[in-house]
Structure formats: C-alpha cells, structure tokens
Amino acid sequence: MKLRPRDLPLLVAAIVLVTAFAAGALRYDHFASVAVVRNLLVDNAFLGVAAVGATFVILSGGIDLSVGAVMAFTGVVVAALVERGGVHPGIAIAIALALGAAFGLLQGAIIRGFALPAFLVTLAGMFLARGMAFAVEPQSRPIRHPFVATTLNESATIALPLGETSTTIPLTVSIGAVTFVVAWFVLRQTPFGRRVYAIGDDLQGATVLGLPVAATTIAVYAISGFLSALAGVVFVLYQQAGDPTACKGLELDAIAAVVIGGTLLRGGVGSVVGTLIGVLIYGLIQTIITFEGTLSSWWTRIVVGALILAFVAAQRGLERVGRRLADA
Questions:
Q1: Is 90 within a domain?
Q2: Which of 46, 82, 147, 154 could form a disulfide with 234 if both were Cys (CB 3.0 to 4.6 A apart)?
Q3: 328 within a domain of the structure (yes/no)
Q4: Is there a domain that residue 314 lies in?
C-alpha cells in the first residue's frame, strides 16, 4: 500500500503517541499499566465524543465554537429535569440530546441560509448556549437519582478479566468507543461521508457537480450539536452533576485533538482515527504531567499548543509539496 502525502500527518501523530507512551513507561514506575490506560480512556471519553463532532465540521471546511457551551447546557438540563422536575434520567437525557441536535441544526441553517461565517455564528451560539445554561441552573446541581449513580455508572460497566486481575470499563468509555466506530463508518462507507469530504476539499466543485451542499452542511452541524450534547451526557455521568460553568474552552481542546490527529483545518483531509489518536495524545500529556508531579497543569496547554503549531506547519509544507508534484 502506497503512502500518500496526505496520510503523513496521521502517521506522525501515531508515532508521537507511541513515543510519548514509551517515554512515560521508561521514566515512571507503573506507567505502562492497565490502570493508567483505563484512566486515560475514562478521563477523556467526553472529549473524544466532542472531538468526533468537531471532526465532521472541520472536514466539511467549517468550525464549531459552541461545543463546550452546549455540553454545559446539556448537563444542567439533565440535572434540572431529574432533580427539580422529577423526570426519569433516561427521558431527560433523550430531551437533552434532541435539544443539542436542534441547536446544531439551527446554527447550520443560519450559516447556509444567510451565507454567514461559521466562526461568527457558532461564536454567538457559544454565548447563547452558555447563557441558557446559567438561566436553567445558576450553579452546580448534583444528580442523586439511583439510575445515574447505580444503573448507568455501576451496573452498565463491562468487566474485563486480565489474568489474575480484572478491570471495569464504564459506560462512558463504551459510549465513546461506539461513537468513534459509527463516525468512522459514516465518513468512510456512506455517500453522506463522501459528500462531507468533497465539500471540505472543494466547495465550488461540489456545487458544480450538483451535490446537496446546503443539506449536507446543515446535517454536519446537527451532528456536531448532537455529539456535543452526547459529550455533555458523558460528562454528567463522569461528574454526576450538571454545572453551567463546566467545559469552558473544551471546544478548543476538541479542535486541538482533531488537528493533532492530522485533519486539515481547511477541510477535506482527515479521519476519526486521527482524532482518536489526537485525543489520546492530549490525555497522555496530562497523564505524564500528573506523574511528574512538579509541573503545573498549564504545561498541558503549552505542549498541546506547540504540537498544534508543528502539525499545522507540517500540513502546510505537505500541501506545497503536493502542489509542486501536481504541477511537475
């Protein structure tokens, strides 16, 4: 199988992930353990789900800055419905997911209907969703319903026997895994996925070919809204509380994971496999800093920022090489 220039960022991201894990295993005792890998997955499941939604949007050539605010709004809606309204958590979660999808669909319709920049529309959506979160619940509200605490967070776990020991995989990780698999199938094996790539690669060309650009764009933002809400549900299960101040800046973390995973910000090139690698790199950096013990958590931002610059520069260089080869 011939390696294409556009596949190099994904390969580099995979090498960075393996190198970082190997470095941690060599430097710290008990780093290369099942417990560390499990915690890595558990602590980053909600980011992974949000990053999948960001992947759809970025592949189409767009951007969504409302992700973190929609997550917080989802959390407080679930908490308010369950704790104040007496609604069953299953119904509350379904309502929150529907609201997230509707919010994303509305943003997509505004972007396409009024030909407005996605940056501005989703920036306004970020303020709107965050404000609605505070309007619904001005402060953090724990969720004490047994369906959340016991059924979803304990009974729905998967036990993995590993020799003489065993570990459990919580529902949040299972949701993240299913999300990645479904997203991979949709993007790689369906006509809709091929349209997303085509629109991100060449919007004018896709329009000339008669592809349903408007419908696909709106659907992409609806997917992002739904997955942002699903990430909010995962975060609620993780924290067992709804908090209007939660997930500030998480949309930037999701975009960072997507870019580190090799997806081009201009769209048309990338994959959810790369996004998964990007999320794991992000979580691995946090884990290494925790093991180090003497470094501030802000070093995560510094390292991630450096990686983003490196990957964007590498992507630009590969684009120039590709154009020169095409002209040769």
A1: yes
A2: 46
A3: no
A4: yes
Q: Across the strands, what pairs with 160?
A: 167
Amino acid at 117: P
Contact status, residue 147 vs residue 88, Cβ threshold 8 Å: yes
Which domain covers residue 9, as residue numbers? 5-322
Per the domain annotation, does 87 fall within a domain?
yes
Contact in structure between 35 and 168 (CB atoms under 8 Å): no
Q: How confident is the model at residue 300 (pLDDT cuts 50, 70, 90)?
A: confident
Q: How far is CA 55 from CA 13, 27, 30, 145, in A?
A: 16, 33, 33, 33
Which CATH number characterizes residue 307's domain?
A: 1.10.3470
- Per the structure, how many domains does the chain have? 1
Q: Which two tokens stand for residue 287?
A: 């884990």
Which has the closest alpha carbon to 171: 179, 161, 183, 182?
A: 179
Backbone angle region of 209, left / alpha / beta, with phi > 0 → left and psi within -120 to 50 → alpha: alpha
Of 100-109, 127-136, 160-169, 236-245, the least confident: 160-169
Nearest CA among 231, 220, 240 for reference residue 74: 231
pLDDT tens-place string over residues 20-54: 899 999 999 889 888 899 999 999 999 999 999 99
In whole angstroms, what is the distance from residue 53 CA to residue 51 CA? 5
Residue 293: which region, alpha, beta or left (left: phi > 0; alpha: psi -120 to 50)? left
pLDDT band at 5 (very low <50, low <70, confident <90, very high): low
Rg (CA), the chain: 20
> Of how many residues is the chain composed?
328
Give tens-digit pLDDT for 203-225: 999 999 999 999 999 999 999 99
Give the three-class secondary structure for 29: coil
> What's residue 298's pLDDT?
76
Residue 274 tokens read as 């790369």
